[in-house]
């Protein structure tokens, strides 16, 4: 009799443990992301016009982004720095850092570049090659998602620390002149103002109407293979069709300086964008639906933090 009771008890305990584990594995309730709101924030950036370093519009938008984040975040920091442009021009730039749940030592980083390219050097009309681009997808799309994310986190405290960083000076250089690309992320990586995050996710060119995001080569093969696979697994679980389970191009992007200082960095990018570095990179080429997919994924990573392993 005792033996039967013991076996039954053990079986009951195993079953209870199983159901508890299933219950604990359920997705926690997370806030709702609005692709429509993110799209409005994309348009709002573009309404300022092109935003390359060294222009009055650039400085106006820097102040606008700072004030926007300062109204929402626990702490907002502007990292001011300078770089040397062409013909000896000194460029004043700034990274905007917004921190949420700032006391938490467990942190994740989400980032994008907010500057735009000073020249449309991929435009089919050579007369436009010296004209600044509007940068609706290449710049504003990732920033728009993170701006709306900040609005959400203001009213929904995240279970871990979240740093949002808007990099300046990503897209300034002429093709082949790598010293004048990634200026903001290089400065940030050398001057970290927060605890090193468990991982970082870079958003670049994620607003394309026909959004297809493969696993970026450096992210998957070198910088953060496990984190990359986990993110794509979450995207599949959420039913996000933009995420393609294959390895795409190897990109020189803002995740490189982060990886160089030991941060596991993943680049979400759709490089198959025919309007890249042309005057046609305008809001009508982007969609709220694409922005919504990215935002839904980011919220899931924050509120179902399954990736916090070194």
Task: Kindly describe this structure.
By secondary structure, the protein is an alpha/beta fold. It has one domain (29-303): Aminopeptidase (3-Layer(aba) Sandwich), CATH 3.40.630.10. The chain is 40% helix and 17% strand. It has helices spanning 2-25, 35-47, 56-70, 136-155, 183-190, 217-223, 225-238, 255-260, 288-303, and strands at residues 75-84, 90-100, 107-113, 161-167, 200-204, 213-215, 243-247, 265-269. It has a six-stranded mixed β-sheet with strand order 1-2-4-3-5-8, sandwiched between helices. Strands 6-7 form a two-stranded parallel sheet. Helix 7 crosses helix 9. The N and C termini lie far apart (49 Å).
In short:
With 310 residues, the chain is α/β, with parallel strands linked by helices.
Question: Top keywords for this entry?
Answer:
Aminopeptidase, 40% helix, alpha/beta, 8 strands, 310 residues, globular, six-stranded mixed beta sheet, disordered N terminus
Can you identify the CATH superfamily? Zn peptidases
Average pLDDT figure: 91
Structural category = alpha/beta
Helix content: 25-40%
Number of H/I helices = 9
Give the number of domains.
1
